[in-house]
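Review form for a predicted model. The reviewer records the input and the model, then writes brief findings.
Reviewer: anonymous (R2)
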Amino acid sequence: MIAVGRIGRLFGTDGGVMVTLYSSFPDDHSHEEPLFVEIDKLAVPLFCSSFERRGQTGAVVHFDDIDTA
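Model under review:
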């Protein structure tokens, strides 16, 4: 696995997060495939219910099954 971004802060009250994308993030990423998030040094697969690019290096992401802060 390679690091492709970093979760920065919460976005709204419905479980969204702001993500800073690294240059290694693929332009053709399929949102049907999970993103692996490192939680307590474990790679946890999370599926995106929405992924909205914000400029070149940002995105607002909502993950399935996470709907609160």
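Findings: Residues 4 and 23 are 7 Å apart (CA to CA).
Further findings: The chain has no helices and six strands.
Recommendation: see findings above.
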